[in-house]
Amino acid sequence: MIIYNGDISKLIERLKRDLGKNEVMLDNQTHQKVVFTKIVKPDWSDSKLKLTFMSISNRERHIITVTCRDQKKFDCLVPKTGLQKKIKEYFKAVIDEPG
Q1: How many other C-beta atoms are found inside a 10 Å radius of the C-beta of residue 93?
Q2: Containing H/E element for 13?
Q3: Contacts from 95-98 at CB under 8 Å and sequence distance 24+?
Q4: Listed residue (68, 52, 70) closest to 12, CA to CA
Q5: Most buried among 17, 40, 41, 51, by the most CB within 10 A?
Q6: Over the stretch 37-63, which tens digit does the pLDDT of each residue have?
């Protein structure tokens, strides 16, 4: 879980640019759900990944959850694995990025 104070639409647009093909499942004032399918990030994994980004918002404060699975339905966010660390570093960089 990530707590984010900022413009959630800018964050989602950044993810769309970085991660590619996506499907917006839910988009309203308080809830966002975007599923990124067939992510190809060789520095993360040799497999194509499916990442689900969900947020619940209260004005400019957002609670974000992320799930990520590979083609074999393996949970890519198992703690202390190499892939989990890479995804965590990516989100930290994106969220800490100014503006």
Answers
A1: 9
A2: helix 8-19
A3: 95/2, 95/4, 95/6, 95/11, 97/14
A4: 52
A5: 51
A6: 989 888 898 889 999 999 999 888 899
